Amino acid sequence: MTPAPRKKRRSHKRRGATRQPTGVFVQYVGRMFATRFIGLLIFFIVILQMLDLLNNSTEIYAAEGADWRSMAKYISLRAPQIASQFTPFAALLGAVATLSALNQRSEITIMRSAGMSAQRVLWPIFVACGLVVAAHFTFHETVVVRATKELTYWEANDYQVDLPPQTDTRTGVQVALDNEFIDAASAGRANGVVRLDGLIVYRLDAEGLADAVEEARSAVHDGAAWTLRNVRSLSVTGEPGRLIDEKTWETELDPDILFAMTLKPDRTALPDLMKQIGELRRNEADASDEMTSLFARFSKPLSTLIMPLLGAIAGYGVMRSGAQLLRAAMGAALGFGYFVAENLLIALGKLGAIPPVIGAFFPLAIFTIFGVVILLAMEN
Question: In the predicted model, what is the mean pLDDT of the chain?
Answer without folding.
Answer: 82
